[in-house]
Design brief:
The complex is a heterodimer of chains A (309) and B (301). Chain A is built from 12 helices and no strands. With 309 residues, chain A is an all-alpha fold. Chain A is flat. Chain B is built from 12 helices and no strands. Classes of the chains: A mainly alpha (309), B mainly alpha (301).
Chain lengths: 309, 301
């Protein structure tokens, strides 16, 4: 176990280093630079700006500075908003995005897993067909399209829920639902497949044979095994939810990190794009690592020698 | 030695004639695909969308960039059967041109992924050993990188545009194809037909490209089909955040993004492209799932 964790940790650090380097190189390939505008700046101002942002240092020196700054978690100032650092933007935006993300994951689990169980228990009957049709639609419709449908129906036609902004609990529902659509559908499919497999096992027959009711068999025996593969997909789905939240936050005017990110793309605010990309990457890679670790702890059948063949 | 020993035997009527012609792999797959209702519907819908995209514009009295402020924001009517947008452009026509862009991006991006993934995975699986080890480590590391973030970064660097979207998607989405092909090749390279080809003196590249890769074409087609909706989604997503194709060209993502601004008063501007994206993705996913069942009977549950 210890060796596995160390190995995964090392490969995670390697991935993070690649991410930071690729990001840096890409951002240095941008033609023109952030201060190139139609109106040429006076020479003195240009020199000052270049000194301020160290644009004239050689490539390798900027790379080392940049890596050092990332290690100290100092992502530098925003190019567009004077006086705001990238750290400020992350600190103000991320908690909002985190609330939205956690709500979506919870919704996805609450909707997807029961739907999957129901479909497996009623295999090839109408609840199964219905649930799997809904799941295929959920997997196919992108979250930002789902968001526009939800907004149109529930906010403008029925007027049940607010269309946008952030702060009241009722304003969380629509964006969280839009984000939860894909993962819920995915969970439903996975749960169904894995439940069907488990329900055919001998120990389930034994449980029925000793007189347990269906709910007891499901809750006490089947679910424990069936949910393990479901949880292994939590990592990739977190990535899906996070990237989905860029657009969802923009659509619903939620002041989260995703919206800042998209705004910084519109503004070509390079330090913010760079910093937030690195932040998101670190977050995702770390969460993936934790999910994998939890997965190994959950499932005693997994051998720890080689993670992939 | 008598000469007649070397004469061929007289031809008899084959005693065990086959009653029916044997079904090939493809005929079998086609039959299974047609039996799958979802896949058939998906295929028909995709054909209709292609028709809509290719010949539709010729029947439309408008062009995608015809502006007329008098006709701005009209609801669906006989003249503009999906309404007009805020510049008076006909939405149905723009949707047709958008379909061209979205479908082209889906198909070309999928082809780029297919090429890179098949060559990369094929080489890794065929040569095995250290080569495989190093190549797959690289894939593992790239897999750890959240690809959408890097597509966004690439688009920021390259700038918006049709070709750049293809480059960005092509460079980042080939990993699963490489993994699948590598697994297939690895499983097949030890089989007898590969050995037979080697005995006959075929070179290694010939074995790889003429024998092993054609034999894994089933999973390759399935993966490529499922990449198309992924690419269409990515294009719509990028257009939605302002990194897609440039105006006055309009992909479905651009149309949806434009339509969102008027959702309260002119919902048809949003609903038309939103439905178009959803239905296309749904059709491709149904077709991909059906193809998976049809081309790889082992995977059927």
């Amino acid at each position: 176990m210890g060796r596995y964790i160390v190995r995964r940790l090392l490969s995670m650090l390697l991935v993070l280093w690649v991410i930071a380097t690729v990001t840096f190189v890409l951002m240095n390939l941008v033609p023109g630079g952030p201060f190139a505008s139609e109106k040429p700046l006076p020479e003195a101002i240009k020199r000052n700006i270049e000194a301020r942002y160290r644009l004239n240092d050689p490539f390798w020196k900027r790379y080392i500075d940049y890596m050092g700054n990332i290690l100290r978690w100092d992502l530098g100032p925003s190019f567009k908003y004077e006086g705001r650092t990238v750290n400020d933007i992350i600190n103000s935006g991320f908690p909002v995005s985190a609330v939205l993300g956690v709500t979506s994951v919870a919704l996805a689990l609450l909707l997807g897993i029961p739907a999957g169980i129901l479909a497996a228990l009623k295999q090839n009957k109408w609840p199964d067909t219905l649930a799997m049709l809904a799941a295929t639609i959920g997997v196919s419709v992108p979250s930002f399209i789902m968001a526009t449908f939800l907004m149109y129906i529930f906010a403008y036609k029925l007027r049940w829920l607010p269309a946008a902004l952030w702060g009241r609990p009722s304003q969380v529902i629509l964006p969280a639902l839009a984000l939860a659509g894909f993962p819920a559908a995915f969970f439903a499919r996975l749960t169904r497949a894995s439940m069907l497999e488990v329900l055919g096992e001998d120990f389930i027959r034994t449980a029925y044979a000793k007189g347990l009711s269906t709910p007891a068999v499901i809750a006490r025996h089947a679910l424990k095994c069936a949910l393990i593969p479901v949880f292994s997909y939590l990592g990739p789905l977190l990535a899906q939810i996070m990237t989905g939240s860029f657009v969802i936050e923009k659509i619903f005017a939620i002041p989260g990190l995703g919206q800042h990110y998209v705004t910084s793309i519109y503004n070509r605010d390079y330090t913010v794009i760079l910093g937030v990309t690195v932040f998101y990457s670190i977050l995702l890679v770390t969460l993936n690592f934790l999910v994998d670790l939890g997965y190994v702890l959950l499932d005693p059948r997994i051998k720890l020698a080689e993670p992939s063949s | 030695m008598q000469e007649e020993l070397f004469l061929p035997l007289p031809k008899e009527d084959a005693p065990e004639r086959m009653v029916r012609p044997s079904t090939t792999y493809w005929q079998d797959a086609w039959r299974r695909l047609r039996e799958n209702r979802g896949a058939t519907v998906g295929l028909v819908v995709i054909a209709l969308i292609c028709l809509f995209a290719i010949v539709g514009p010729y029947f439309s009295p408008y062009s995608y960039s015809d502006q007329s402020l008098i006709r701005a924001n009209r609801p669906p009517s006989k003249a503009n059967w999906l309404g007009t947008d805020n510049l008076g452009r006909d939405i149905a026509t723009r949707l047709m041109y958008g379909a061209r862009i979205s479908l082209a991006i889906g198909v070309f991006a999928s082809l780029i992924n297919l090429t890179i993934g098949v060559v990369y995975g094929g080489i890794a699986g065929f040569f095995g050993g250290q080569v495989d080890n190093v190549m797959m480590r690289v894939v593992d590391i790239l897999y750890g990188i959240p690809s959408l973030l890097y597509i966004i970064l690439l688009m920021v660097v390259l700038g918006p545009g049709f070709g750049n979207i293809l480059i960005a998607i092509g460079l980042t989405e080939w990993l699963s194809m490489a993994r699948i092909v590598r697994g297939q090749i690895l499983a097949m390279r030890g089989q007898d037909f590969a050995l037979a080809a080697r005995c006959l003196g075929a070179s290694r590249w010939r074995i790889l490209f003429r024998h092993l890769i054609p034999n894994s074409v089933g999973p390759i087609i399935v993966t490529a089909t499922l990449t198309i909706p992924q690419a269409i989604f990515l294009e719509a997503f990028l257009s939605f955040i302002g990194l897609g194709v440039s105006a006055p060209m309009a992909s479905w993502g651009v149309l949806a993004s434009d339509g969102l601004a008027g959702i309260r008063s002119y919902p048809w501007q949003l609903l038309a492209p939103a439905f178009a994206i959803s239905i296309t993705m749904l059709a491709f996913n149904f077709l991909g799932d059906g193809l998976r069942d049809a081309l790889d009977p082992r995977l059927r549950s």
